[in-house]
Design a protein that fits this description.
The protein has helices at 54-62, 82-86, 104-116, 122-135, 151-163, 181-196, 210-215, 235-242, 253-261, 267-276, 288-295, 310-327, 329-349, 360-398, 404-433, 440-467, 470-486, 502-507, 509-522, 542-548, 556-581, and strands at residues 11-21, 27-38, 43-47, 69-75, 89-92, 169-172, 200-205, 218-223, 226-232. By secondary structure, it is an alpha/beta fold. The chain has three domains: 1-88 and 168-306, Rossmann fold (3-Layer(aba) Sandwich), CATH 3.40.50; 96-166, no CATH class; 310-581, no CATH class. β8 (218-223) and β9 form a beta hairpin. The longest helix is centred in the middle third of the chain and has 39 residues, at 360-398. The chain is elongated, with a radius of gyration of 31 Å. It binds adenosine-5'-triphosphate. The site of adenosine-5'-triphosphate has 12 residues, from β2 and α1.
């Protein structure tokens, strides 16, 4: 197993402060200069009332979120050791970010493939997976989709997944939340076994029962970002006695200390505890730390953990995302059906008017309609779906399953065939039933512009989804498209738009698509259009219409290249936007 070691990791921290931004210039300090030591081979519980800063501390120590953090973190007695340390940590968030479309075993297999790579053969991986599944009593449900397993099983699977890479330090955010007392106790028992094997296991916990409390080797009590006590669980009673607040024999010590932390016995007691514990700096209530130091079990700092090769990572992610895609065919069918149904609907409205010179303006509106349809379908899909995937991406990336670029390339390429197929079929239907010229080169040009509009709209959705939450993403998505749509020639000729808007026009991919499609339909020496005897035709040739629109000289390659440039620009910007959302 990667990075396995009989020796562990001891984390010392001092003067740790975490602040968050609460406005443009304002910050708020959440953790106030605390210290502490989490020794190797211990199960450590971070306790405190709601809002005390438990998750913030867990995130800071694990490196999952270090924004606004200051202070010293010393690993195995050495500073400047964070890179080595972070590679050996694993973080399990509270909300069980699992692949719900995969079964329990598939989740394990893909995790093993990504974490262990090609160097470990399939047989060894399967043996390891079966042994972990057995230990965590998950073997019987290994073929069940993760979406159908119980909350406790999800928690166990989350731990099981991380054990594949045998991390030396495990951070768990509220692993017992939502579990009944028996399952909670079992969950903590499992964690205790891991600690007994030499791992440093740190978890936040709400109101533990007396039985659960006793299982911890070490507790860290927080109140409003300050440390009230840190040390051995047994020693806590001694500490309370020493400060004149003995815990009644029949009182659950965890309940008592939380009542103290909540201020139920007065704020002076909180101040006193902070003073005696030296805001976490007092190590005299720790047995394990003293043992570690005197026995010199600090591990020499060596070794490195590497990612798998790019091609292997990409191949595995392709496989995983493809399996997920096949399990969620309803979304794929919905996407294809929706665009095709829209295609028929648009065709029935603009039926057979492509040859009619008197209906040239209707035909122009048809092109706008095609573009708007593709924009709406493309943007909504990604702006909604991506934020749902962000949690699991953050967890997997932090826990070193893969590099972001492999994931990004895999999801980009995997979506291409569906996008291209649905847009192409829908637009072909429209072109055919609205009697547009069906010459191969014209059709190909219109279809190419259609594909690019869909892909760019999806990229905008992805960019917004990676920068904003769902509500803001949907709002900004519609808002951004208003000027882009107006400048594409919607109800107003581009030439009549005030010149100071021209700059926006250059980035309006809809404008390139509308011009490009019209040139493909009316340009390239198209023969005279039919003018019915009883109708008035202002334009009888496509060329005169294009001249009036001032797009006669547009070339396919210029418009298409601009769209390609916009597409790649957006994809690159999105990559960096996602990077910003990932733990550093
Ligand atoms: N980005 C933020 N902006 C403003 N306040 C924040 C931010 N993040 C956290 N806080 C505040 O910091 C405090 C600590 O939050 P944290 O989530 O760490 O608490 P907790 O002890 O884990 O709480 P709970 O047990 O309820 O999950 C809370 O008062 C919270 O409101």
């Amino acid at each position: 197993m990667n990075g396995s070691s009989s020796r562990g990791v001891t984390i010392d921290f001092s003067n740790l402060t975490v602040s968050v931004k609460t406005g443009q210039t304002k910050t708020k300090e959440i953790i106030h200069g605390i210290g502490g030591t989490f020794a190797s081979g211990s199960l450590i519980g971070i306790l405190g009332p709601s809002g005390a800063g438990k998750s913030t501390l867990l995130n800071a120590l694990s490196g999952f979120n270090t924004t606004g953090m200051k202070g010293d973190i010393i690993i195995n007695g050495k500073r400047n050791n964070m890179q080595w340390y972070r590679k050996r940590c694993s973080y399990i968030p509270q909300d069980n970010d699992l692949h719900h479309l995969l079964t329990v075993e598939e989740n394990m297999k893909f995790a093993a493939d990504l974490k262990l790579g090609e160097t470990v053969d399939k047989k060894t991986k399967n043996k390891m997976i079966n042994s972990i599944l057995d230990t965590y009593s998950l073997s019987e449900i290994k073929d069940t989709p993760t979406s159908k397993i119980s909350g406790g099983q999800k928690k166990r699977l989350s731990v099981a997944l991380e054990l594949i890479s045998d991390p030396m330090v495990m951070f768990l955010d509220e692993p017992t939340t939502g579990l009944d007392s028996f399952t909670s106790s079992q969950c903590i028992e499992n964690l205790k076994e891991l600690a007994n094997k030499g791992k440093t296991v740190v978890c936040t916990i709400h109101q533990p029962s007396a039985t659960i409390f006793k299982q911890f080797d070490h507790v860290y009590i927080l109140s409003e970002g300050r440390c009230l006590y840190q040390g051995g669980t047994e020693n806590m009673l001694k500490f309370l006695e020493e400060i004149g607040m003995p815990c009644n024999l029949f009182h659950n010590p965890a309940d008592f200390v939380l009542e103290l932390a909540n201020g139920e016995y007065g704020s002076d007691k909180i101040d006193m505890m902070i003073k005696y514990s030296e805001n976490g700096g007092n190590r005299s209530y720790m047995d394990k730390y003293i043992e570690d130091v005197t026995n010199g079990v600090y591990q020499p700092l060596s070794g490195d953990l590497h990612f798998q090769s790019n091609t292997y990572e990409l191949k595995t992610l392709f496989r995983r995302e493809f399996v997920k895609l096949t399990r969620n065919l309803s979304l794929t069918y919905l996407r294809i059906c929706a665009t095709i149904i829209n295609g028929f609907m648009i065709s029935s409205i603009y039926w057979n008017l492509g040859e009619n010179a008197s209906k040239i303006w209707f035909n122009y509106n048809l092109v706008l309609c095609i573009v708007i349809n593709l924009v709406m379908c493309g943007i909504m899909l990604t702006v909604i779906v991506f934020p749902m995937e962000l949690g699991i991406l953050q967890k997997e990336h932090f826990n070193r399953y893969f590099r972001l670029r492999s994931y990004y390339i895999a999801i980009t390429i995997l979506d291409l065939p569906i996008s291209i197929f649905s847009t192409t079929v829908s637009n072909y239907i429209i072109l055919y039933f609205t009697a547009q010229p069906m010459e191969m080169n014209r059709v190909l040009m219109v279809l190419s512009f259609g594909i690019m509009v869909g892909l760019i709209a999806q990229s905008i959705g992805l960019l917004l989804g990676s920068c904003l939450n769902l509500r803001n993403g949907v709002f900004v998505g519609s808002y951004v498209h208003m000027p882009l749509m107006l400048l594409s020639g919607f109800g107003l000729l581009v030439k009549d738009v005030p010149s100071y808007f021209n700059i926006i026009g250059y980035i309006s991919y809809m404008r390139y698509a509308v011009s490009g499609m019209n040139v493909a339909i009316y340009g390239y020496n198209r023969k005279k259009l039919e003018c019915p005897d009883d109708e008035f035709c202002y334009y009888t040739t496509g060329a005169s219409f294009l001249k009036e629109m001032e797009i006669k000289d547009h070339s396919f390659w210029t418009d298409f290249s601009c769209m390609i440039a916009i597409y790649f620009g957006l994809r690159i910007a999105t990559y960096f936007a996602i990077t910003k959302r990932l733990p550093k």
